[in-house]
Design goal:
Layout (H helix, E strand, L loop, with lengths): L2 H21 L4 E5 L11 E6 L3 E7 L2 E9 L2 E10 L6 E10 L17 E9 L1 E13 L7 E4 L2 E11 L8 E6 H9 L7 E9 L6 E12 L3
Parallel strand pairs: 8-10
Antiparallel strand pairs: 1-13, 2-5, 3-4, 4-13, 5-12, 6-11, 6-13, 7-8, 7-12, 9-10
Length: 222
């Protein structure tokens, strides 16, 4: 093989490899930055036990969602449909300003208050037949804990962050929801994702909780 032909083949191989890399690049299905004044327009409220205050806040050039629960429980959710296997990566930023006071809680139901939750929802016919993955920041439960919600075994709680953290610093999370689903439920998801949600609640403890959310992204890969 002469030198010129060898160089040509190397160039061709490089171009093919670059094309393969570009083809396999991450595809973002949806990104919520909350920088626009109407950023919450298409989000819906689900009031479960009194309204939580969800509102857009701005710090410098950055917009985000602030959540304040005063003995209440409600969520903000966004409807969308996709196969989890196609877009398994969920990332977001959050921080907790105040955790609910669980010091007097005696039962699992009473302890089911969290300052910050991020849901991936797989709706099907009814609540009990639907599936939920619930990512939670708790003050005391250890990271990596996976457990059933008091609401039912169709709701899996995953503690992804533990401890008080820094109230002035954003914490970034990135989860492979497909892998988390299989680990939590022991099988692949049968239904599409129908919504994602954020929640802050302190109704079971009759206390106050406060948190913030930003940069929620659904993507094909890390």
């Amino acid at each position: 093989m002469n030198k010129r032909l060898k160089i040509i083949l190397i160039i061709i191989c490089s171009v093919i490899c670059m094309g393969a890399i570009a083809y396999s690049a991450t595809v973002t299905l949806r990104e919520f930055t909350f920088d626009e004044p109407n950023a919450l327009t298409k989000w819906n409220k689900m009031v479960l036990n009194g309204p939580v205050e969800y509102k857009l806040l701005v710090a410098g050039d950055n917009g985000f969602v602030g959540a304040l629960s005063e003995k209440t429980c409600s969520a903000m959710y966004y409807r969308l449909g996709f196969k989890l296997k196609d877009y398994p990566i969920l990332s977001w930023k959050w921080r907790v300003n105040r955790f609910p006071d669980k010091s007097a809680a005696m039962t699992e139901k009473e302890r089911d208050d969290y300052a910050a939750r991020v849901y991936v929802i797989f709706p099907f016919l009814s609540f009990s037949s639907s599936k939920f993955i619930e990512y939670v920041w708790d003050k005391d439960l250890p990271e990596g804990t996976v457990m059933d919600s008091p609401e039912g075994s169709n709701v899996k709680i995953i503690i992804v962050r533990s401890g008080p953290g820094d109230q002035d610093e954003w914490v970034s999370e990135k989860r492979n929801v497909y892998e988390d689903y299989v680990d939590a439920f022991g099988s692949e998801p049968r239904w599409k994702v129908g919504a994602i949600a954020i929640m802050c609640d302190a109704d079971s403890t009759g206390s106050v909780a406060e948190s913030k959310f930003d940069e929620i992204t659904i993507a094909s890969q890390i």
